[in-house]
Amino acid sequence: MITTLAVENHRSLHRLVLPLGPLTVVTGANGTGKSSLYRSLRLLADAARGGAVAALAREGGLPSALWAGPEKPGPAVGVGTARGDAVGLRLGFAGDDFGYAVDFGYPGGAAGHPRSLFTLDPEIKAEAVWSGPVLRPAALLSERKGPYVKVRSADGGWHRHGGRLRAYVSMLSEVADPQHAPDVLAVRERVRGWRFYDHVRTDAHAPAREARIGTRTPVLAGDGSDLAAALQTIREIGGDEALDAAVDAAFPGSRVEIEPLGDRLELRLRQRGLLRPLTAAELSDGTLRYLIWTAVLLTPRPPELLVLNEPETSLHPDLLPPLADLISAAAHRSQLVTVTHSRPLTTALTPAAHVVELAKENGRTTVRGQGLLDEPAWHWPKR
Question: pTM of the predicted model, to two decimals?
Answer without folding.
Answer: 0.90
